[in-house]
Design goal:
By secondary structure, the chain is mainly alpha-helical. It contains 10 helices and 3 strands. The chain has one domain (8-192): Intergrase catalytic core (hpI Integrase, Chain A), CATH 1.10.443.10. It has a 3-stranded antiparallel β-sheet with strand order 1-2-3, with no helix packed on it.
Length: 197
């Protein structure tokens, strides 16, 4: 069925005005701590950190291998195949990239072996179990880490266009949803970093 443009625009506006659910960085840390004592605690903790710190979709994170870690202007990046089979390069914190490399070395992973050789359902179970162990009341699911990463990146940079490119959104309206999470304090801090000569 073909909808008039005005209906589609109104629908996008309503969707973009909703506050997206997310986790605070300290809640994510509690989830990583919660899995440390489990049998696959190192792997599961790394998966949670990759989902949060890089903001990947679960399918993107589960397809990662050591060969995906590259350098761009001396900084680590991940070359991935995103949604719709679109290639994308995203930044990854140096410490997390080092931890992934160490993990690959300890596990004797080959260049193209997966860091997280589990399916999406198992990925969902990992984060649900972490939330249960940590005692979080929120509903925790893999995509929530992507939202959480987006909110934190926007808080720190105030740059929705850079966030759109990082997340691989084809539409700016998808990224603009995260603006509703920013408060007055965030706006003052971000604008306070503007310098004029």
């Amino acid at each position: 069925m073909n909808y008039p443009i005005s209906v589609l625009k109104r629908s996008a506006l309503v969707k973009s005005s909703k506050v997206v659910p997310y986790l605070l960085p300290e809640e994510v840390k509690s989830l990583v701590e919660a899995v440390k004592g489990t049998r696959q605690g190192q792997r599961d903790g790394l998966l949670i950190e990759v989902l949060f710190q890089v903001g990947l979709r679960i399918s993107e994170a589960l397809s990662l291998a050591p060969s995906h870690i590259e350098k761009f202007e001396g900084k680590p990046v991940l070359s991935i195949i995103g949604k719709g089979k679109k290639p994308r390069t995203v930044s990854i914190p140096e410490r997390l990239a080092d931890r992934l490399r160490s993990f690959a070395f300890e596990r004797k992973l080959n260049h193209n072996d997966l860091f997280f050789p589990v399916n999406r359902f198992r990925g969902y179970q990992i984060v649900r179990r972490a939330a249960k162990i940590a005692g979080l009341e929120k509903r925790v699911y893999p995509h929530l880490f992507r939202h959480s990463s987006a909110v934190e990146r926007l808080r720190q940079t105030g740059n929705p266009r850079a966030l759109q490119l990082h997340l691989g959104h084809s539409s700016a309206s998808m990224t603009m949803r995260y603006l509703n999470t920013l408060g007055q304090e965030d706006a003052i801090r971000i604008q306070g970093e503007v310098q004029f000569e």
